[in-house]
Amino acid sequence: MLTISCVVIVVFSKTDIVNATTTLNPAIIIPFVGTTTDALVGGVICQYSGGVNARLAIPIIVSSYMICGLGFFVAILIWAAYFVKLMNSGLPPPQLTPSLIMLVGPAGQTAAALQVLGTAAKTYFGAYHKGTFLQTQAGEMLATLGVMLGLFIIGIGLLFAIFGVYIILETAFKRQHKYTLIWWSTIFPMATVNTSFIEFGNEMDSPTFRTLATIFFLLLLIDYILNWIFTIRDIWLGKLLKGPRSERPPAGRMKGQ
């Protein structure tokens, strides 16, 4: 995923943004959601895996912070380019409006990663005890900064979430929606926000964030079930794979041919 992200950065840096923003798709941000996810996984491995000592954990924590920075700060560039696209070309077609939720992913995953990595740093930095940075005080500072920066960054994620949900609801109110597989892209990005809420609830012992995490989980579960229902329905009707059943020739006629 890190290699893919670097390739996207090179291609993106050589692209004429003024002309390319008319066709820019939110899906371009996916590699950097994956990069920040790698950072989160690094923190989870250090924090919850058995048999991990400071010597094993420190390289994982340091490299996870680095790739988290790569993913999040390149995501900022893509957000800026996409908003240029919105100002120049307007909103995507109605059938593609669910893809706007993809923009939430990097913020939610970064907020969760910073908290988990901060907790891991607090656990292992003191045990490693080398240099001026890998010390107990630095680990405690990173744990505190992880929560504070996570709150800042999740604010960006909620901005994109509110924006995307508003556009989707507005399009639905105008009866312009048609179910496509792009609706599946609404699940994982919003799940990153839920992950960060769970971490906020743990770090601050907050009933509010735990309640928000529960509400988000239930909404995501409903979204997941509805996507399966509509996907199975449209596969059965032939709308997703081979066209509507009414447009296909009868089986007997096909055998005769």
Automatic annotation (TrEMBL):
The membrane spanning regions, by residue number, are 57-84, 141-169, 181-200, 212-232
Protein family according to the UniProt entry: Belongs to the tellurite-resistance/dicarboxylate transporter (TDT) family.
What taxonomic classification does the UniProt entry list for its organism? Eukaryota, Fungi, Dikarya, Ascomycota, Pezizomycotina
What is the protein name stated in its UniProt record? Uncharacterized protein
Q: Where in the cell is it found?
A: Cell membrane
Main location per the UniProt record: membrane
Q: Which organism is the protein's source?
A: Hortaea werneckii (Black yeast)
- Gene3D superfamilies per UniProt: Voltage-dependent anion channel
Membrane topology reported for the UniProt record: Multi-pass membrane protein
Q: Name one GO molecular function term.
A: sulfite transmembrane transporter activity
